[in-house]
Amino acid sequence: MTTVKSCIQKKSGQIFSLTSTDSVTQALELMRSNRIRSVMVIDDGALVGMVSQGDCAIKVLLPGLVPSQTPLSAIMTRNPTTVAATDTLQHCMEIMSARNFRHLPVLTQGKVVGMVSIGDTVKDIISQQGDHIKHLETYIKGHGVA
Fold it and tell me: Is residue 70 a contact partner of residue 24, using CB atoms and an 8 Å limit?
C-alpha cells in the first residue's frame, strides 16, 4: 500500500499557503498562478485552516462580499482534517470519500509537509491496477515462458 510520504515525495515539495489575514483575492491569485484548487492557511508555522475555490465562490461571491477586503479568516475551514506521512493513500481516499473533501494537509510533528489530493489517490489506484494487470498477464502466459 502506498504511503502519503511516498506520494508527496513525487511532488514538487512546494507548500502553497497564506496567512489568515491575507485576502481572498490573494488566495485566488495563488490558486490561479499555480493551477491548484485550495491553499492552506498557516499562522506562525501552525496550520489554522484551508480555503478552496468553492469556499471563495460560496462564502464570498454569492453573499456579495468584496474579495480584496475579505480576510481568509472569515471564510476558511478551521482546524482542517489532516493526515500523517505514515498513513496510506487508501486511508486518505476513505477520509475524502466519507467527508466529501478533495484535499488533505499532511503533518509531521505538527508541521505541514505537504498536501494530498483526491487526484493523487486516483493516480495511485490506476498505477496499482496497471501493476496488477501486468502480474495477471504474466501468470496467464505461464510466467513468461512461451
Answer: yes
pLDDT in tens, 47-58: 999 999 999 999
Ramachandran angles phi, psi of 6, nearest 5°: -65, -30
59-110 tens-digit pLDDT: 999 999 999 999 999 999 999 999 999 999 899 999 999 999 899 999 999 9
Q: Using alpha carbons only, give the angle 53, 14, 12 rounded to the nearest 5 degrees.
A: 105
Nine cell digits for residue 100: 466529501
Phi, psi of 42 (to 5 degrees): -125, 125
The architecture of the domain spanning 4-140 is: Roll (3.10)
- Which amino acid, residue 126? I
Q: At what angle do helices 89-99 and 118-140 cross, to 10 degrees?
A: 130
Q: Give the DSSP letter of residue 144.
A: T
Taking the C-alpha atoms of residue 94 and residue 100, their distance in angstroms, rounded to an integer, is 10
140: confidence class by pLDDT, cuts 50, 70, 90: confident
